[in-house]
Amino acid sequence: MKLKRNATNETVPLENGFLFSDEFYWKPIEQSQERAIDGTLIVQQGKKKSGRPITLLSKTDKQGWIKRALLSKIKDWSALLGEQFTLIFEYPHDTRQFNVIFNHAEGAIEASPVRGVPTVSDNDYYRATLRFIEVPDVN
Description:
The chain is mostly beta strands. It has 1 helix and 11 strands. The strands form 2 sheets. Strands 1, 2, 3, 6, 7, 8, 9, 10 and 11 form a 9-stranded antiparallel β-sheet that branches. A two-stranded antiparallel sheet has the order 4-5.
């Protein structure tokens, strides 16, 4: 898995151990149901055009780790206003790509050192949660 900054085509590798935790919570159809005065059901529905949340998290203590140097780069990217990114899955069974922005409303990045003590190197590992929102491609 990797995250690509669309403006520069620069990529950051992400360990395949991250769990796409809200993959099946997304409802692509929005629907409202009301009753008319005579009791008739009135249904309005439409397909959502964007806004799918994508949360990648370290589910256990043994997977979904990221080195401090890469996490710092992603943190810097998250502060770039107006930038879009491509989240690229690279599994044998899953090669989907999502055009995303960071989900700052829900807390774009959370991280803690794997060892539970302050890190001393950019090669030290962190458990992380990365939150994105799928958006339409501006191109």
